[in-house]
Design a protein that fits this description.
The chain has four helices and no strands. It starts with a helix and ends with a helix. The protein has a domain of about 55 residues. The protein is mostly helical.
Length: about 80
């Protein structure tokens, strides 16, 4: 019963988003993935995923909006 309800839930990420992340991860492994402004080589796995998701957002794929700032930053401002 529980499995069926989980299957009915809408997917959070679309197939296009998964493709973009997969491509970014592949580029990172080859050593050709570069970051935005600085154009430095990306070595971090998390950063590669973030780059793939941002590319997916720009292309209009189904991706949830990115989380804005941490709670620690908000505390520091106030």
């Amino acid at each position: 019963m529980r499995l069926a309800s989980r299957a009915r839930m809408a997917r959070r990420y679309g197939k296009k988003a998964a493709q973009k992340v997969r491509k970014a991860m592949h580029e990172r492994k080859r050593g050709t993935l570069r970051s935005g402004r600085s154009r430095k080589k990306v070595k971090s796995r998390k950063q590669a995923i973030a780059i793939g998701l941002s590319q997916a957002r720009r292309s209009g794929a189904k991706v949830p909006p990115r989380k804005r700032g941490s709670s620690r930053r908000r505390k520091r401002r106030s």
